[in-house]
TrEMBL record:
Protein name: Interleukin-11
Matches recorded under PANTHER family: INTERLEUKIN 11 (PTHR16922), INTERLEUKIN-11 (PTHR16922:SF0)
One GO biological process term: positive regulation of cell population proliferation
Predominant place of localization: secreted
One GO CC term, this protein: cytoplasm
Alphabetical list of SUPFAM superfamilies matching this protein: 4-helical cytokines
Origin species: Melopsittacus undulatus (Budgerigar)
Domain of life the protein comes from: Eukaryota
Lineage: Eukaryota, Metazoa, Chordata, Craniata, Vertebrata
Length: 198
């Protein structure tokens, strides 16, 4: 008479599968919750990178229409004091507050260029569009600061002097856009590092 081994095999198989599932390290992994301000920071990163491209394009237009060799500076523009090596130790509170404050100053300078006289009048639509994007980035930064319970900077009140000549307005345009381009390049890198730290 043959043995009836059929019913025992499925039970053994089920037992082995149960043991394997318990030993497997990749069975179920909990979903990591989004950190506070995570979605707002993603929006700021995206806007900053887009604004960097817009500024680069407008700077190219300015250089093609008003060539001006050399480096142009304005003492009223923000100054980058953090080197690339220091980016690794960047902190959200200080970096985001500084970025918000500096963007307020750049918005004033871009708006100032729009009213700098006839020399830059042909760039008024592009400068207006750039100003609108700066304001949008500023609003997103304010939302992020609020989400992280960080203080918002106050807008600077010191008026900017009017350019003394058309050539001075052109040089000011180069100074503002060159500085903004470099600043946004730094800001985009800093924001990406902050995003990875959250």
């Amino acid at each position: 008479m043959g043995t009836r081994s059929g019913p025992t095999m499925p039970r053994a198989l089920v037992t082995l599968l149960g043991l394997w599932a318990g030993l497997c390290p990749c069975h179920v992994v909990g979903v990591r919750p989004r950190p506070p301000g995570g979605s707002e920071l993603e929006a700021v990163v995206s806007l900053a990178k887009g604004l960097l491209g817009d500024t680069r394009a407008l700077l190219g237009v300015l250089k093609s229409r008003f060539p001006a060799e050399g480096e142009h500076k304005l003492d009223s523009l923000p100054v980058l004091s953090m080197s690339a090596l220091e980016l690794g130790n960047i902190q959200a509170a200080s970096a985001l507050s500084r970025l918000s404050s500096d963007l307020l100053r750049y918005r004033r300078h871009v708006d100032w260029l729009r009213r700098a006289g006839p020399a830059l009048r042909m760039l008024e639509p592009e400068l207006g569009a750039l100003l609108a994007r700066l304001e949008r980035l500023g609003r997103s930064l304010d939302l992020l600061l609020s989400r992280l319970s960080l203080p918002k900077p106050t807008a600077p009140q010191t008026p900017l002097p009017a350019p003394v000549s058309p050539w001075a307005a052109v040089r000011a345009g180069h100074a503002v856009l060159q500085s903004l381009h470099l600043y946004l390049d730094w800001a985009s890198r800093a924001l990406l590092l902050l995003r990875n730290k959250l």
